[in-house]
Structures are given as C-alpha cells and as structure tokens.
Amino acid sequence: MSSRLHDLAVEHLGTRIVSGELAPGAVLRTDALEDDLRVSRSVVREAVRVAQSLGLVETVKRVGIRVLPMRSWNLFDPSVIRWRLESAQNGAQLRSLTELRTAIEPVAAELAARFAPPALAGELMGIAASMRTAGRAGDADAFLELDVDFHRMVLRASGNEMFAALGDAVGEVLRGRTSSGLMPTHPNEDAMQWHVDVADAILAVVPTPPARRCSACSGAPPTTSSARGATCRARTRPRHEGGRAIRFQIIFNRCHTD
Fold first, then answer.
1. pTM
2. N or C terminus: fewer CB in 10 A for the chain?
C-alpha cells in the first residue's frame, strides 16, 4: 500500500469530519469513498481504521461507516488538533488549547524549577538564547520550531509524564496559530525575553516566578492589584525544597498577540 495514498485518504476523511462537512450521524460507504478518493478498497479500509482509532467514526454492520460527534473524538491527538485549527472553527480550538496551556504550563514550569536536572534546565536556557538569535535575525521558521522545543521541554522538565504527553498538542497550537496568521512575522522582543526569563528562573539563577514570564508567553501582564500582590509575595518568599521552589503567577495569554 502506498504510504502517500494512505496519508491522503486519512487527511481527506479526517478533514471532512472535523470541519463539519460530514455531520455526526452521517453514514459513509466504502465504495463511495473509493470513488471520491480514487484509491483501492484496502487504502480506504486502512484510512477508516485510523479514523476509528481517533474516535471520528464507527463501523456498523449492515449500515456502513457512521460519523461520530466531537465528544467521541481523541481531542488531544495532534492530527485532530491540526484539522480543527485548519477548519473554519479554528477560533474555538485555539481558545480551548490556550485555556489548557494556561492551566498546565505554569504548573509544569514550577515543577521544572523544583525538580529538573541542571543539565536539562541548562538546555532550556540554550533554546531560549537560540530563539532570541533566530528572532532577531528574522528567521520565523527557526524561531517557531525552537519555540515548540522550548515549551515541550518545559513540560518534560516537570517530571510529570502526563504533562510531557501534552507536548505534541502544544506544538500543534504553536504551529497552528502561526499558519493561521495570528502571530507577527517578526517575533516580539518582549516575547523572546519572557522565554529567557522562564529558563533563567527554572535554573534558579534569579528568584523570579517562571510562570509569571512563561504565562506572559501567551497572555497579558497582570493588571489587578491582587495579581501584582501575588507577584510581590512570590519574589520575597524564600526559596526552599532543595533550593529550587519558586512561586508562580499565572497569567498565560499574551503570545496570541505578541
């Protein structure tokens, strides 16, 4: 079986379902898919198996291939995320993923500050420095891939395997918002600095809450007195638990505009 034909069949089926072109409850027939895609039955069957594994369809005996509602989809699968980001309803997917990142990434950064091995934390700082170099050189593609690596590494450095498993999902939203034209063509200097600050805090070089800066990678700076107060308390709290615990301030919305 041609790998390219298989991939095209999966993309065709997945895109049509996720975009809503094929509504939940719609019934597909194998022979109709063969005609639509101009591929063999074996290619269609394999594409349907992939769609089943993603929760997009189910096969019903003597009925056909039935499209399933979103609640059945594997919403964390990178392909499903990408298809949603490429659809006309990409705003809802971006919002959901941003809310997920807001809840998870600051906590991951705090755990990384407490438990990450020095070598891993040092590698994170190296990526942040490379991001600044690529950004100032105007190399948007290199900057994007380094950004993906940075956020994946923060999740991995947390030591929590569940957080680390979200790396591909975070990578898809970072790429998706760029391909959707939601990011500036030239990386913002402040955004580059925030990544350096996150890495710096995780290394425990400066007792500044990493999540305050990591949050700023996709959010706005704190404007309320309570947020400012939490930040001040974080800065004055003594470091303990192995000398690496740092209090995090969660903001996490700004990278969508910077």
1. 0.74
2. N
